[in-house]
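Why does residue order matter? Because the sequence determines the fold. Keep that principle in mind as you read this record.
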Amino acid sequence: MAPAALAGIARRGPFEATAETGCGGSTIVLSNASKHHTVFAIEGENRTISALRHHADLLLERVEFVEGESKDTVPVHRFRSSLDLVLLDGPHAYPWPQVEFAYLYPHLKVGGWLVLDDLQIRSVFELFEFLKHEPEVALEEVVVRTAFFRRTGVEQRGPDGWQLQGINRSPVWRYSWRDRLRDLIRGRRR
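Structure:
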């Protein structure tokens, strides 16, 4: 994560509770900015979690490491409180950023920040494009390749509500032109 993006996280603090997928420099920043920080990560061959636990700047007493693949750990995790900030920077292969979003976003309080890192990766960029059209979040800024969204409201869609999602307001013409033409012809006959 770019130093300017890490500074963007720190600038938005202090926080009561935060969570991130993946770990690294952001974990150190969030351990200092948050009273309770939950990290969903795997140890990996670089032994990232072990190295972080011994880093002089990490406030270990404020960090809870939930080890394992986020697709397994995030859906079953029970948070103590709502979250002030969620950072999605775990696995980047499709659909894992979207899955992490689906399970973590409901825990993000109104006024909290949703941070997406690595916009240069198509699967993350697609989530970014989706969020730009959603009425309950507002894009505050993009720093290098990290997007900062602010949650402005609560979803009002019900169990599906795909028609109410901003990204679905415009049809995909390649596949909908026949329906639109049929509607136009029927309209003229009336």
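The beta strands are 15-21, 34-41, 63-67, 83-88, 108-117, 137-143, 146-151.
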